[in-house]
Amino acid sequence: NWTTGNVIDEQVAAIRELVGDKRAICGLSGGVDSAVAAALVQKAIGSQLTCVYVDHGLMRKGETEQVEKDFVAATGVQLKVVDAEERFLKALAGVSDPEQKRKIIGREFIRVFEQAQAEIIADEGPAVEFLVQGTLYPDVVESGGGTGTANIKSHHNVGGLPEDLEFKLIEPLRKLFKDEVRMVGQELGLPEEIVHRQPFPGPGLGIRIVGEVTKERLDLLREADAIAREELTAAGLDRDIWQCPVVLLADVRSVGVQGDGRTYGHPIVLRPVSSEDAMTADWSRLPYDVLAKISTRITNEVSDVNRVVLDVTSKPPGTIEWE
Ligand code: XMP
C-alpha cells in the first residue's frame, strides 16, 4: 500500500540503520531528485549529512540562489557551495561537439566534487562512508542499469561515477517515478519551486547552446530562458508541460529587421514537450498567444536574438534536449 508517508518512514528508518554514526555526503544539482533525496537523508541523519553544490555556471537564472537560500532554509541542511564557473568555462572553451561537452562537464564535475569531498572528509568527525544519489527509476532504465537498454546519451548522474568509487551508495528514490518523488518532496516540506521544478539536465545550459559555450552566450540564453519560464508560469502551463528547453543556435545567424534597420542575430528554439517519463515525448501544443508573447519578449529584450522558432518534433525521433 503505497503512500508518501510510508515511503518516507521506511527510507528514514533504513537510512538511519545503514549509516549508523558515520557521515554521508550528497551532491545537489538544483533539481527535484537530488533535493528530495537530500531532504530525506537529512531527515534521517541530520548533521551527519553534508551537501555539496557545484556551481558550474551553466545553471538558469536564479537557480543557484534557490539552492543556497530556499533549500537550506527549508531543510536546515549543511551545504558547501563551490563556485567553479571559471573552471568549467575554461574546460569548455573551443568545444562544440555535444558528446565532447557532456564528457568535459561530467569530468570536471566529478573532479570538483571529489575535491569538495576530500575537504569534507578531512574535517574533524566520523568517517564519510556514504554518498547519496537522487537516481530515479527511469534513470536506472535509460542508462542501461535496469533492463540492458542501450545508453543513448551519457547521463552523468548514473554512468559517470568514478570506477574506484569508495563510497557506499544511498539511493532512496531508485524505485520511484518523478511524480512520486514530487509527492515525497511536498510531504517533506520542500519549497514549491523546487518540488515542481521541471527536469533540467545535469550538464545544464551547456547542452542548450548549439556551438561553443561562452559566458556571453550563457548570459544571453539565461535571459531568454527566464522569459520563457516566466510566461509559461504566468499562463498557468507549468503543470501541463513536462519541460521546455530553450536552446540557443549560436552557430546560426539569420537576417532580420528591427528598429532602425537590419539585424543579423541568432535564433532561439523553444522545445516544449509533454511526457510521462522522458523516455518518449510529444511536442506541446502551446496556445498561440503564449508563444507570441514569448517570441515578442525574447526578440525585444534579448540582444543578438532576432528570431524565435518552435520545435515540433516528438521523441522519438528527436530527443528532448538538442544535444
Ligand atoms: P533526452 O534529451 O535524452 O532527455 O530526451 C531525457 C530527459 O533527461 C534529461 N537529461 C539529463 N538529465 N543528466 C541529467 O540529469 C543528463 O546528462 C541529461 N541529459 C538529458 C532531459 O532534460 C530530459 O528531461
List the uncertain runs.
146-152, 155-160
What is the architecture of the largest domain at the second tier of CATH?
Answer: 3-Layer(aba) Sandwich
Through-space gap between termini:
40 Å
Enumerate how many helices there are, as a single number: 10
Percent in helix: 40-55%
Task: Name the CATH superfamily classification of the largest domain.
Answer: HUPs
Give the helix/strand class.
alpha/beta
What are the distinct ligands in this entry? xanthosine-5'-monophosphate
The structural domain count equals: 2
User: Mind describing the biggest β-sheet?
Assistant: 5 strands, parallel
> What is the CA-atom radius of gyration, in angstroms?
20 Å
EC number: 6.3.5.2
Function: Catalyzes the synthesis of GMP from XMP.
Keywords: ATP-binding, Glutamine amidotransferase, GMP biosynthesis, Ligase, Nucleotide-binding, Purine biosynthesis
Catalytic activity: XMP + L-glutamine + ATP + H2O = GMP + L-glutamate + AMP + diphosphate + 2 H(+)
Task: Please summarize what this structure is.
By secondary structure, the chain is α/β, with parallel strands linked by helices. The chain has ten helices and twelve strands. It binds xanthosine-5'-monophosphate.
Compile the SSE list and pairings:
Layout: H1 4-19, E1 23-28, H2 32-45, E2 49-55, H3 63-75, E3 78-83, H4 85-92, H5 98-122, E4 128-132, H6 137-142, E5 168-170, H7 178-187, H8 192-195, E6 209-210, H9 215-234, E7 246-249, E8 254-258, E9 261-270, E10 273-274, E11 282-283, H10 288-301, E12 305-310
Bound molecules: xanthosine-5'-monophosphate.
Xanthosine-5'-monophosphate is lined by residues 152-153, 155-157, 199, 201-203, 243, 278, 315, 319-321.
